[in-house]
Amino acid sequence: xxxxxxxxxxxxxxxxxxxxxxxxxxxxxxxxxxxxxxxxxxxxxxxxxxxxxxxxxxxxxxxxxxxxxxxxxxxxxxxxxxxxxxxxxxxxxxxxxxxxxxxxxxxxxxxxxxxxxxxxxxxxxxxxxxxxxxxxxxxxxxxxxxxxxxxxxxxxxxxxxxxxxxxxxxxxxxxxxxxxxxxxxxxxxxxxxxxxxxxxxxxxxxxxxxxxxxxxxxxxxxxxxxxxxxxxxxxxxxxxxxxxxxxxxxxxxxxxxxxx
Amino acid sequence: xxxxxxxxxxxxxxxxxxxxxxxxxxxxxxxxxxxxxxxxxxxxxxxxxxxxxxxxxxxxxxxxxxxxxxxxxxxxxxxxxxxxxxxxxxxxxxxxxxxxxxxxxxxxxxxxxxxxxxxxxxxxxxxxxxxxxxxxxxxxxxxxxxxxxxxxxxxxxxxxxxxxxxxxxxxxxxxxxxxxxxxxxxxxxxxxxxxxxxxxxxxxxxxxxxxxxxxxxxxxxxxxxxxxxxxxxxxxxxxxxxxxxxxxxxxxxxxxxxxxxxxxxxxxxxxxxxxxxxxxx
Lengths: 260, 281
Known about the structure:
The complex is a heterodimer of chains A (260) and B (281).
Chain A: H1 2-30, H2 34-41, H3 44-77, H4 83-91, H5 98-109, H6 114-121, H7 130-156, H8 159-166, H9 171-200, H10 203-209, H11 219-228, H12 232-256
Helix pairs in contact in A: 1-12, 2-12, 3-7, 3-9, 3-11, 5-7, 5-10, 7-9, 7-10, 8-9, 9-12, 11-12
Chain B: H1 2-9, H2 15-19, H3 25-53, H4 58-66, H5 68-101, H6 107-113, H7 116-119, H8 122-133, H9 147-172, H10 176-183, H11 188-217, H12 220-226, H13 236-245, H14 249-280
Helix pairs in contact in B: 3-14, 4-14, 5-9, 5-11, 5-13, 8-9, 8-12, 9-11, 9-12, 10-11, 11-14, 13-14
């Protein structure tokens, strides 16, 4: 009796909170066939937003992957004072509101700050431009790769790496031949998480991009702007495209998730 | 978080590691680069927010935080997040229980769905909720521009936290003790309360604290469904956003600093909870 009660509560709650809302928007988007969906997503503004999103997400994923692998090796394989503090700093972005991320980056890299002013005099505009959006995306997705790789690196141990080292392999060879294959699936898992987060970031990018239509508008900003301008078909179509990307990412992480 | 506990309980470094008491060249270079990278992207910008919030004096900071609309936004954010975290505490545990102990067709799909709020962009989450529970709701339930709508959006984005912290603990839990209790005449409720619950409490509280921290910082999913009405549905993140748009940077920095402090308090309590949990377990 209690068993069926709990099952019903869980399933009904998830149905009304997740399944029905997401299902409804997909149904609304494709209700009149595929043509309006394609048409809404191939407008010049939508295509531009797609391009901006891809450029920002790719740079952010590259930066976070390089940093993530390096930081994970540092945290697991090296000894140094302040290790726990470094770990806490890496986790910090999880606790910061996206809007605060945007504000923080604007304070350092905005036109009216010393650093931002200097960079701008060299012709490098950060805020209201692509570099700022990349920085904001890097910030919000920072811990994902590190936290995916660290447990696997701990589990692997360093016997094989030491063996490679005694056999005369260089540091880089050891990394490429021993460490990288060992962390491959955990790294892929982290990269997918990071990519999903980067494609979907809204708040931090909304602050640092200045939300300039056809210039710094990403797909998430496009959804919001179209919705506020009563262009529901375009907003729903772009939202559905993002939701489908999220589902693909979800299924990929399911395949790649380290078995526990 | 689990990774952190793992580091903490890891065995002490072996002799090879201890010999490098002075940092080797590689370690120093790696540490230097990591700290520089973190400083330029995370630490200096956040420090500037805190510094900016007090650069016109503590009196100004206090006035910025206690202006009626900012104060209303902060109390709404913390209150709504606390309620949402408590709902997650109960329903998240129920869902984890059903996913581990129950068997029914389609359970694998339900298990995968739990992570959907992590993968779905927040603005899309807001839009889908508004489509179902907004003015054009096919169910006839309109929560747009209401506090209930804010709560709904927060429930959506925080769903995975408690489920995903309780689930692994429940999987590991030995059924022997429960069977012993049952054979000694304990009712299912007594068994749950006396045997299962004490083992789950640390994980349940960790998940709740994570959900709370996520809820107080939420922006994207709320911005559409709340309608941004000051004193009614405006949460702190949305208030900060309007202040940035209105060029009131110092005010925005003050509210941001309060949010950062609340998140820090929640995370430190979480850390203490985890230590308490690992001591008991």
